Amino acid sequence: MNNTIHPTAVLDGDVKLGTSNRIGPYTVLIGPLEMGDNNIIGPHVVIGGPGEDTKNPRYDSSQSKIVIGHRNIIREFTAIQKPCYESVTEIGSDVHLMHGVHVPHDAILEDKVVLTPLVVIGGISRLMEGANIGMGATVHQYSVIGQYSIVATGASAVKNVKPFSRHIPGKPISVNHYAIEKYGFSEFKHEIERYVLGNMFPVSEKIANLIRQYELFHTKSKREQY
Questions:
Q1: 165 near 146, Cβ under 8 Å?
Q2: Measured on CA atoms in the order 160, 36, 106, 118, is the torsion positive or negative?
Q3: Following DSSP, what letter does each residue of 46-83 receive, concatenated?
Q4: What letter would DSSP give residue 56?
Q5: Partners of 225 in the β-ladder
Q6: Cβ atoms of residues 141 and 123 within 8 Å
Q7: pTM for the structure as a whole
Q8: What is the residue-wise DSSP string for 183-210?
Q9: CA angle, 99 then 172 then 145, to 5°
Q10: Helix, strand, or coil (residue 211)
Q11: CATH assignment of 4-221?
Q12: Chain segment 171-225, per-residue pLDDT in tens
């Protein structure tokens, strides 16, 4: 399938790869694992270790599945762990996981998520499309990080984060203007500002649909929100 797999890499069990993936030195892939196309997996990455769950630290993870989409970059010393409670740990497409990232059991990372170096995510969390977590930040388990939001470098996110917002500890919630421009939402800038700063629900269907998706997961999580 035209994959480039370093001879020191280990593929253990039911590992299904698409095409044009690059697997770096000393990387370990443990099935059941499904991976799409054109992914770059750096050296010393571990995908498929059991979830670190204190309730059942020795659970049988042999049938616990990880699914990874297309065109992702997963850099060195990153770990992606199998689910403990749900059916899958899932990484979408066009996701960028930088050096030393911890993706826990039962996490869902939607498309275009960026986790910068040394980020730690708690279990059963959902990071929605375009979310960005700053260097060394931590996200509490069961959290929902909304679309195109950002958690600041070194921050601890212990509540859910609204779409298009910036969580900076000690400061009021603010608007992630960088994401608005980067991802093509400039025409909705004022609606987004009113939503983030004043909780005014957007009138444009494109933005309203994003907020509705977030609200579904936010409500289900039963967590507070910044």
A1: yes
A2: negative
A3: EEEEPP--TTSTT---TT-EEEE-SS-EE-TT-EEE--
A4: S
A5: 160
A6: yes
A7: 0.96
A8: TT-GGGHHHHHHHHHH-PPPSSHHHHHH
A9: 40
A10: helix
A11: 2.160.10.10
A12: 999 999 999 999 999 999 999 999 999 999 999 999 999 999 999 999 999 999 9
- For residue 1, the model assigns a pLDDT of 75
Alpha carbons 135 and 127: distance in angstroms, whole number: 16
- What value does the mean pLDDT take over residues 15-43? 98
Q: Are 74 and 56 in contact (CB under 8 A)?
A: no
Tracing tokens 């979408």 back to the chain, one arrives at 92
Domain positions in the chain are 4-221
Type of residue at 15: V
What single-letter amino acid sits at 28? V
Q: How does pLDDT run across 125-182, given as a tens digit for each residue?
A: 999 999 999 999 999 999 999 999 999 999 999 999 999 999 999 999 999 999 999 9
Spatial neighbors of 81 by CB under 8 A, at least 6 apart, are: 48, 49, 50, 51, 52, 89, 103, 104, 105
